[in-house]
Amino acid sequence: MIRCPRGTRDFLPDEMERRRHYEGILRDVAHTFGFREIGTPIFEEAELFIIRSGPNILDELYGFKDKGDRELALRPELTAPAIRLFVNGMSNHPKPIKVFYFGQCFRYERPQSGRYREFFQFGAEIIGSATPETDAEAIALAVSMIRGLGLTDYRVRIGHIGILRQRLVDAGVGKDDMAEILRKLDKKSYDEAEPLLEDAGVSDADIADIFAMTDGTDGIGILAGIAGEAGDHLRSVLSCLRDMGVRDVEVDLGVVRGLDYYTGIVFEAEAPALGAEKQICGGGSYTLSELFGGEKVFSTGFAIGFDRILLALEKEGAVYEADGIGAYVIPASAEMRTRATEVTALLRAAGIPTDTDIMGRKLAKAMKSASDSGARCAVIVGAKESEDDAVTVRDMVSGAQTVVGIADLADFIRRP
Question: Does 331 share its domain with 311?
Answer without folding.
Answer: no
